[in-house]
Specification:
Layout (H helix, E strand, L loop, with lengths): L15 H4 L8 H16 L18 H23 L11 H6 L8 H21 L2 H4 L2 E4 L2 E4 H23 L4
Antiparallel strand pairs: 1-2
Length: about 180
């Protein structure tokens, strides 16, 4: 049975950009499963040096982009788990640029980053697969705004699809 899309009011307005990346009628859990091989394929032909470059001055490197994916997925999955368990505490936001700056991603190999990405994805998939319909409709507050577990389920793959598009359009042409 298809998973219904989140309704207006189930997420902060900025998240619509990500939610809308998930095709209508698609199961966001299946979209998440399908992204990992595509993500790996993008990096399979790149050198370490290529992944340490941004597409313009001041832009993240591809290694930093991988780490950003990992960090963001962990944070959104954590929020989903808390809300699914009935936790009503307001969860803080995070500054993605500060996280990237402190990540040390460029000192790592692409292989180590992708291994962490795979471990994070396996955990996220197991968590999202565990949610009942009732849990998907539970809500909480994060970063000062509403979020349901259902919205977070769509945001995680949508966020990655958004960044895959950026990698293809902005990074790969300059490499």
């Amino acid at each position: 049975m298809p998973i219904a899309r989140p309704a207006a009011g189930d997420f902060m307005p900025y998240a619509a950009t990500y939610i809308n990346q998930v095709p209508d009628g698609a199961d966001p859990r299946e979209v998440l499963r399908a992204i990992a091989p595509e993500f790996h394929a993008l990096f399979s032909h790149l050198t370490e040096a290529q992944t340490e470059k941004g597409y313009a001055d001041g832009k993240w490197t591809l290694k930093e982009m991988i780490q950003h994916q990992i960090d963001t997925e962990r944070i959104f999955a954590y929020r989903a788990m808390r809300f699914a368990r009935g936790d009503s505490q307001d969860l803080p936001g995070f500054d993605q640029d500060d996280y990237v700056a402190q990540s040390g991603a460029n000192a790592r190999t692409v292989a180590s980053l992708l291994a962490e990405y795979d471990a994070t994805r396996a955990s996220t998939q197991a968590l999202f697969d565990s949610f009942s319909d009732e849990q998907l409709d539970r809500r909480g507050t994060a970063n000062g705004g509403p979020a349901t577990v259902r919205a977070l389920l769509f945001i995680v793959p949508g966020h990655e699809l958004h960044h895959l598009h950026i990698i293809r359009e902005r990074y790969l042409p300059v490499l």
